[in-house]
Amino acid sequence: MDRTTEKGLKPVTNDSVKPQGHIQTNDYPRYLTISDLSRYIHKAKATIYCQIKSIPHIKNGNQLLFDKNDIDEWLATKKCWPVDYDALKLRALKSLTGTALRR
Hints:
The protein has 103 residues and is an alpha+beta fold. It has a domain at 29-79: Arc Repressor Mutant, subunit A (Orthogonal Bundle), CATH 1.10.10. Mean pLDDT is 79; it is low at 16-22. It is built from 4 helices and 3 strands; from the N terminus they run E-H-H-E-E-H-H. Strands 1-3-2 form a 3-stranded antiparallel beta sheet.
């Protein structure tokens, strides 16, 4: 049965809201072209060409191909984790003074 609010509007669910241009991971082939990769990682082709030495790829004649599994692993190594600045400051002070500091 279709649920609606008292004003006749349907409630919004996570399944019904997707970012514009969203393409599911399963929609891509195993080997991506430069255009596929551009859409997959949301980067311009020019940016990809500039960073090509750091991106895992296969050169097939004049065509560049990217193994989706390799790209997923490569992206995982690019994660940035939050920094605990208090712990970082404390560690820096310890190394400068050469002694343990108390909080």
